[in-house]
């Protein structure tokens, strides 16, 4: 028994296939689904030639109405000529009664881009279309990926913060001994000279003993601020003990210039500091040296330390420099 021919009204066709085209034998678009009409500016595609609205990539070589017979049953690849040049895939079947072709279109892998570009919603798709579910999956995946990106960023920031804290003296904000070792490793083998300064505070114990540890901490914090102010941005300033400090100055090749910086630091440190109405008076003994290019900086700390204790033996509150030991 032969089934009778089916007849669908425009409303039913629009509900089943909101991206359909009815193309006449002349190549004119005589009907279109509501979603497709929404996507095409200036009144939609109806009444316009198919090849004026769309570019056909497949089948190839279709340049006019005379070639359209080749779309019978063909899988189509086409895109809108107007920006954003949305791409479609489709299937064309001949219409025995009405004549021409019924073309049903879909977005394929360009679905998400098309939805964003044309502001489509679930109401623009057939109720049985899995597109809506795919959109939810895409949105869920995007949300998960964005949350993972934020989590990775937080973890990376936490890692950077933890590494920075591990290299920093909490009281002064200077590098600690570990931070100094990291800086020394960076200098090792570089083909550039560098200045090295070892500093030990004089009379600091007296401040702690007479005024208390809070006063001592205030003095150390001020020392850190002075050392940062009197050195360059690329220098490393470290607190390596209770009242011991080291300054590394990459590229410093002039011993006289290095001594000038040390003398300026010494003068700043000797300025009286007030804490809770009491005067905190300290000074410093400083040993300096300029290391030659390519020198291993670690043993040179002993040279600078030797200069420092020479300053203490000479009466404190002074700068002494010695040549690097090899």
Automatic annotation (TrEMBL):
Residues 138-165 form a coiled coil. InterPro entries: DGC-Regulatory_Protein (IPR052163), GGDEF_dom (IPR000160), Nucleotide_cyclase (IPR029787), Rev_trsase/Diguanyl_cyclase (IPR043128). Residues 192-324 form the GGDEF domain. The keyword Acetylation does not apply. The keyword Coiled coil applies. SUPFAM superfamilies: Nucleotide cyclase. Keywords: Coiled coil. This is GGDEF domain-containing protein.
């Amino acid at each position: 028994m032969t089934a009778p021919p089916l007849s669908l009204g425009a409303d039913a066709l629009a509900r089943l296939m909101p991206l359909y085209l009815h193309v006449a034998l002349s190549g004119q678009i005589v009907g279109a689904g509501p979603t497709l009409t929404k996507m095409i500016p200036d009144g939609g595609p109806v009444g316009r030639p198919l090849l004026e609205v769309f570019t056909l990539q497949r089948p190839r070589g279709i340049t006019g109405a005379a070639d359209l017979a080749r779309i019978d049953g063909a899988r189509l690849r086409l895109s809108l000529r107007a920006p954003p040049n949305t791409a479609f895939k489709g299937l064309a079947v001949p219409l025995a009664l009405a004549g021409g072709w019924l073309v049903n279109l879909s977005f394929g892998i360009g679905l998400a881009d098309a939805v964003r570009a044309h502001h489509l919603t679930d109401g623009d798709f057939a109720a049985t279309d899995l597109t809506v579910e795919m959109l939810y999956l895409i949105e869920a995946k995007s949300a998960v990926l964005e949350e993972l990106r934020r989590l990775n960023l937080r973890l990376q920031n936490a890692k950077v913060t933890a590494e920075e804290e591990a290299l920093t003296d909490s009281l002064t904000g200077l590098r600690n001994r570990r931070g100094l070792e990291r800086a020394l490793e960076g200098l090792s083998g570089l083909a550039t000279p560098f200045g090295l300064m070892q500093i030990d505070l004089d009379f600091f114990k007296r401040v702690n003993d007479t005024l208390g540890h809070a006063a001592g901490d205030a003095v150390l914090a001020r020392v850190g601020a002075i050392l940062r102010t009197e050195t360059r941005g690329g220098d490393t300033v470290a607190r390596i003990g209770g009242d011991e400090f080291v300054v590394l100055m990459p590229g410093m090749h002039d011993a006289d210039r290095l001594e000038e910086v040390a003398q300026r630091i010494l003068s700043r440190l000797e300025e009286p500091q007030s804490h809770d109405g009491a005067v905190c008076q300290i000074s410093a003994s400083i040993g300096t040296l300029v290391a030659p290019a390519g020198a291993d900086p670690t043993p040179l700390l002993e040279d600078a330390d030797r200069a420092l204790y020479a300053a203490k033996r000479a009466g404190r509150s002074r700068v002494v420099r010695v040549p690097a030991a090899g």
